[in-house]
Amino acid sequence: MSAPRRLGPFPPAGPPPRSIADLAERFAAGSAVVVDVDELVAAIEAAGISDRQAQVRYGVPTVFALGEAVLARLWAQRHRPGAAPLRPAAPPFARAALARAALFLTPALAAVAADATLARVGWPLLAATLLLGWSGGQALACAGYARASHGATGAGVRRIVAGLLLGAGVCAAAVAFGPPGMVGERTVAYAVCGVELVAFAGTAAALVGDRVGAVLRWSVPAWLVSLAGLAGLLPARYGWLLGAAVALAAVRAFVPALRRDRLRTPARTPLAAVLAYLAIGAGQAGAFLLVWRLVPGAGGAPPPATVPLLLAVPLIEVFVGWHAAGAAGGLDTYDDVAAYRRHLRGLGTVTLAALLPPLAIGAALMVAAFRLPYELSRHPDARALVLAAAAGVLLAGGWAATLLLATRGRLLLAAFLALAPVAFAAIPVAGWLVAVPGGGVDSLIQVLLPATVAGLAATAVLGLAATAHTVFHPGSYR
Amino acid sequence: MRVALINEGTYPYAPGGVGTWCHQILNGLEGHAFHVVTVTGHGGSREPVYPVPASVTAVDTYPVRDRPISVSGRVARHRRRRAASAAAVLLCRGLLGDDPHSAGMFADGLRRLTELCGDGSHPLFGTELPEVLLDAWQASAGPSAGRPPLPRLSLRDARAAASLIEHAVRPLAYRMPRVDLSHPAAAGLPVLVALAAKWRAGTPFLLTEHGVYLRERYLEYGAVVPVAVKTVLLRFYRALARLGYAEAELVAAVSRFNQRWELRHGAHPAKVVVVPNGVEPLRYPPLATEPTVPTIAWVGRIDPLKDLHTLIRAMRTIRDAEPLARLRLAGPVPETGREYAASCLALIERLGLRAAVDLSGPVTSSRQAFADGHVVALSSISEGLPYTIIEAMMCGRPTVSTDVGGVAEVVGPAGLIVPPGDPVALGHACLALLGDPHRRRSLGALGRERALAHFTVDRMLAAYRQLYADVRAGAGAVAA
Q1: How far is B414 from chain A (nearest CA, A)?
Q2: Peptide bond into B12 cis (omega under 30)
Q3: Is the CA virtual torsion B440, B444, B447, B453 positive or negative?
Q4: Which of B137, B230, B382 sits opposite A46 (nearest CB)?
């Protein structure tokens, strides 16, 4: 429970001060800074000193005269009341950013480790659940934050739980009534879809409930089981154990839902923002599915495009956290608008520069895929692997720009950017369907993979332009 | 006579001293038609806690935190932005100074904003107020004649302060129907409504202060907001209170204590009259019996200004001497007081007083709550002229109160007064009365006699009837 609010600058506690000097000393020991004599008089009166006591005990005619005398002493002691350090330290961000990254990577690692179990479920069902969980998790987190920021953290987390139950109902119906070819083994499908949704909802709940640290501690079993499974230390069917470990961490994230909110102020759900995050989540999930399905991993290994993405998650979090901390720190550091704008221009330049490497590396890999050395070009999957790596790097850059735009409040732009890779991929598919109506899947992938990478490169360029427009616009820092 | 009674979020939605006073004015002043304006935070439907009488033609709620009306048209917006920015410069420079010239700039700034927002739009529409505020701050930040320089105002502080001021000036946009006079019930946001009506339509106003609005802001902001933000807000409210005192035809203080603050902040002595609150004697007949268990009664709104922590700590002292003693706390917990109520419950637990302290919630009549106690206690650190004490005196119950606001003026020799924030003194005073039935009876009788002589609702209503007539006559004379 937070400490009760103190009234007044610092009503003097203890025995009554005997002199004006004593009184000034008592006030000087307080933490608050008095702004003028009236504030001091209000505090003096609230401490029980009346005009009569001012006359008898301190030899001044009124409490107002007493306030003037005390204030003169206080100001003599403090050369400049309230003077804050000119350059306050920048707010720490790396630890929180890395913690968030670890939170996001927990289900990702579990998914990589549970590859054998996931293979028993139809991929359309897995993809639909991923889409539902990813987009729904983002939207529910946004709705939950709206409540939590008004003192109703419990209500915010309960919203996520309600959304989870709804999503679970939809998934259960899909598993129960879906064709076997799309569902796979029904019993396993129920469990996999459930754990998948619980993991997304748990991540959202950990963020809304501000319990990232606690949830990470409870995620240790999930990490251990995942790593042990990947190292081959566990029996073949350890998927159930892994699912239970993921669910355990999620349960910890849902604990604030049981809390009764003491202080609540009315809050409206920001519907536009919720819809924007729904689109952002859907776009991110769609792009992820695209690069995941185009070049699947061989022999139980994760799909090659996902490797740079997984590695990029902590980098993206730290990058966006650094940018946000830089912008927020400037508000405390500067008391001059022109200097603050100069600071923002510098911050924007570095931010933009940090988004260039993914584009450059992705483009270089894309070019390299078509100019492979002779020895490598004989390898049947070499080009696809290099293109997949390019797709992963470019998508990581796109996600960084998307998250940055969302952080700066440009949600519509972020949603467009998140959906762009899927839209770019739809164009060649449509073209292929028209040009090769009876073609096989292999021929589609031959067309789609380079087209997707080109689309991701175009998205990264768009992201760069949108970010430049945003980070150099002072209005986005309001 | 048509009167606009303006309050800040109290009548008819929140129980308490100001709400009760409004209720008495609206029900008691026959021959007047009232238009009630309640300045609130957010809009939305609320349940009134007071029955609205037939003399009230409308109750208008004006939320300052809802989305404001915008200005349409690119050219109109551009012109408006320029004009509002010029007014904001005057406002910010004026509020930071402490001299007549600054007061004039502040008034001029508000007056210009009033002209601009006649269409109901946001007075500071389109203004980059944080930048204007920073400019004004830097212009005023240097040391001047015996005053230290202002503290550092960072951009974050400027944004926070500007956001609060943007909301605070919105009542200027309220469009008042035609009335003969306005009657703001506090020297804060209600004054803005009255000022706008005066500047737009020449409507005079009578200003009543219950607690000293400015003093309560000083106590409220103490250590909870950054010093620079606090400075901006307190300067704003100081300038506003001073302007309100200067522009009001008359100022009604509920106590001489309030009057001191009003005179200090520029109210002309000839304009300030003391009109104490009053209660209806028939509603508070003397209580003939006392409860069997020694009990302290407290009635009020659960709020930090009531300093219940001191009363609960005093109860520890009382229980040490009188193990059967009980404390009954009767009153509502407003939205803003929930955190404080929780802290009170935690303190009760920590001091092991769970069995001794009852939080019985709101009561339909304070008399019933007084009947459950031998002594009525008041532990506030700020008060205007508390109804609780007047009602207790009217019921013949002895009182122990803190020496704040107009409390000592009400109680006189008919009760015990202790310093605020002193649980030991409060506890000993309560014990002195709990252990002496004869003294309780004599103080109770003296209290009722004093309340009948000075604090009846009829006296108060007669005074306001006369003040309304004086304000209207005074304004007519000026107009002529």
Answers
A1: 19
A2: yes
A3: negative
A4: B382
Pick the closest to residue B378 from B436, B319, B331, B333 (CA basis): B331
> Which residue from B151, B218, B264 is facing A81, i.e. has the nearest CB?
B151
Amino acid at B421: G
The answer on pLDDT for A83 being more than 70 is no
Residue of chain A minimizing CA distance to B142: A80
Contact residues for A410 (Cβ-Cβ < 8 A; gap 6+): A466, A470, A476
Radius of gyration of chain B (CA): 24
pLDDT tens across A139-148, in order? 999 999 988 8
**Unique residue bearing structure tokens 């659960």:** B302
Flag if B404 and A46 touch (Cβ within 8 Å). yes
Tokens, residue A340 = 């603050």
For B308, which residue in chain A has the nearest alpha carbon?
Answer: A4
User: By C-alpha distance, which of A272, A274, A302, A290 is closest to A110?
Assistant: A302
Q: Render A121-147 in DSSP notation, one character per residue.
A: B-HHHHHHHHHHHHHHHHHHHHHHHHH
Of A2, A11, A75, the CB nearest to B421: A11
Spatial separation of the C-alpha atoms in residues B127 and B132, rounded to whole Å: 8
3-class SS of residue B151: coil
Cα-based distances in Å from B32 to A242, B19, B54, B229: 77, 18, 11, 42
ipTM: 0.84
User: Residue A50: which of B224, B343, B403 has the nearest Cβ?
Assistant: B403
Cβ pair A43:B219 closer than 8 A: yes
User: Looking at the DSSP assignment, which residues form a beta bridge with residue B200?
Assistant: none
Q: Which of A82-96, B105-119, B441-455 has the lowest mean pLDDT?
A: A82-96
DSSP state of A454: H
Average of pLDDT values for B304-310?
A: 90
Q: Which of A1, A10, A35 to mutate to test the interface with B (most CBs of B within 10 A)?
A: A35
Inter-chain CB proximity A5 and B42 less than 8 Å: no
Helix then strand then coil, % of chain B, to nearest 5: 50, 15, 35
Highest mean pLDDT of the ranges A53-57, A144-148, B458-462: B458-462
Say what the pLDDT of residue B269 is: 94
Q: What is d(CA A168, CA A193) in angstroms, rounded to the nearest whole number? A: 8
Chain B residue numbers touching A334 (CB-CB < 8 A)? 154-155
| CB-side neighbour CA atoms (13 Å) of A243 | 18
Q: State the Cα–Cα distance between residues B283 and B245, nearest whole angstrom.
A: 35
Q: What is the pLDDT of residues B148-189, one digit of tens each?
A: 677 889 999 999 999 999 999 999 999 999 999 999 999 999
Question: What DSSP letter does each residue of A252-265 carry, written as one string?
Answer: HHHGGGGPPPSS--
Burial of A259 (0-12, 13-18, 19+ CB in 10 A): middle
Please determine, for residue B443, whether its predicted confidence score (pLDDT) is greater than 80.
Answer: yes
Q: How many helices (H) and strands (E) does chain B have?
A: 17, 13
Closest residue of chain A to B65, computed from CA coordinates = A266
Contact (CB<8Å) B230/A35: yes
For B264, counting Cβ atoms within 10 Å of its Cβ (0-12 exposed, 13-18 middle, 19+ buried), the class is: middle
Q: Give residues with Cβ within 8 angstroms of B64, minimum separation 6.
A: B39, B40, B41, B167, B168, B170, B171, B189
Coil/strand/helix, residue B299: strand
Q: Nearest-CA residue of chain B relative to A338?
A: B131
> What letter does residue B71 receive in the DSSP assignment?
P
How many other C-beta atoms lie within 10 A of the C-beta of residue A149?
Answer: 13
Tracing tokens 């600054």 back to the chain, one arrives at B102
Cα dist from B474 to A326, B80, B466, whole Å: 59, 36, 12
